[in-house]
Amino acid sequence: MLEPTAVLLAHANGTPASTAFTCGSLGANDPFDRQTAYVGTDDIAAGVVQASGQFSVDQYPYSETIVVHAGRVTLLSREHSLELNPGDSAVIARGTSVQIDALPGSFWAFCADTQSVEAGTVGLTALPPYTLLSPSTPPSEEFLLSPTPQCRSNNVFVEDATNLRIGIWDSTPYTRKARPHTMHELMHLIEGSIILQNADGSELAVNTGDTVFVPRGAPCAWKSSVYVRKFYVCK
Q1: Is 214 exposed, middle or buried (0-12, 13-18, 19+ CB in 10 A)?
Q2: Is 0.85 topped by the overall pTM?
Q3: How far apart are CA 149 and CA 30, in angstroms?
Q4: Are 97 and 142 within one domain?
Q5: Are 154 and 227 in a shared domain?
Q6: Which residues make beta-bridge pairs with 153?
C-alpha cells in the first residue's frame, strides 16, 4: 500500500498541477464531474473541478469547501448569495438547497466530507481571508527545528458530527522536522510560501495562491521563512 503524501491541487493562476487525478463524480447525487486527487476510506475527498453552467441541488450531499482559482462561481441558497472570484473560498454545508452558477472557464479546488450523517446547520459560509484571529497552539517543541512561532486561527465553520473544522490560520516563520500529519488538511495560501518535504525527501513548494492537500498520516516536514496565512480544512 502506498504511503500517503502531500499533493498540490492547483496553482494560483489555475494552471494544472502535475498531480495524478481520477475523473468522475463522488457519488450518485454529486452535481460535478471532478478530478479527484485523494479519496480516503474515512470519507474525505480532495481535488479540482473545471465547470461552466448552472447546477442545482435540493439537498447538497456533502459539507464541501471550494477555493476558486479561475473564472467566477456564484453560490445561491434561500438565504445567501456569494460571488466567488479567484482567491475566494466558501463552504457549502450538507443538506443545503443550492444553485451553483459557474462562468465558462471556472476552475476550483475542493475538499469534501462525504460521510453519510444527518445534516446540521445548512447554508453557505464565506471564508473572509482577513478575519480576526485568536492565539492557537504552535507546533510541539519536540518537532521544531527553529524558535517557537506565534500562531493564530479562527474556526469559521464547524461540523461537530464529522469533526470538521474550516477557517483561517496564520503563523510567523518556523521549521519543523517530519512527523506523520495528525489530520487531513487542505491548505490554500493567502499569503507567504512554504516548503513541504515528503518521506522520500522530495520537496513540494507551495506559494501564495496555491492549494495543497495533506492526508492524515503523511510524513511531512515544514519550512517557512516568511509570514504565512492560509485557509484550512481540517478533519
Answers
A1: buried
A2: yes
A3: 40
A4: no
A5: yes
A6: 134, 169
Q: What is the DSSP letter of 160?
A: G
Note the pLDDT tens digit of each residue in 96-107: 999 999 999 999
User: Which cell numbers hold the place of 204?
Assistant: 513540494
SS3 161: helix
Contact yes or no for 202/157 (Cβ under 8 A): no
Range of the domain at 192: 134-234
Q: How many CB atoms lie within 10 A of CB 155?
A: 15
In a domain? residue 1: no
Answer whether residue 216 is part of any domain. Answer: yes
* CATH label of the domain that carries residue 142: 2.60.120.10
- Report strand pairing: 44-57 vs 98-113: antiparallel
Q: Are residues 144 and 78 in the same domain?
A: no
Cβ neighbours of residue 130 under 8 Å, at least 6 residues apart? Answer: none
> Is 47 in contact with 20 (CB distance < 8 Å)?
no
Instruction: Say if residue 61 is in the same domain as residue 150.
Output: no
In 3-state terms, what secondary structure has residue 162? helix
Task: Tell me how long the chain is.
Answer: 235
Residue 130: enclosing H or E segment and its boundaries? Answer: none
Pairing of strands 63-70, 98-113: antiparallel
Tens of pLDDT along 134-170?
Answer: 999 999 999 999 999 999 999 999 999 999 999 999 9
Chain centroid to CA 47 = 9
Nearest Cα to Cα of residue 182 among 209, 127, 222: 222
Q: Are residues 60 and 168 in the same domain?
A: no
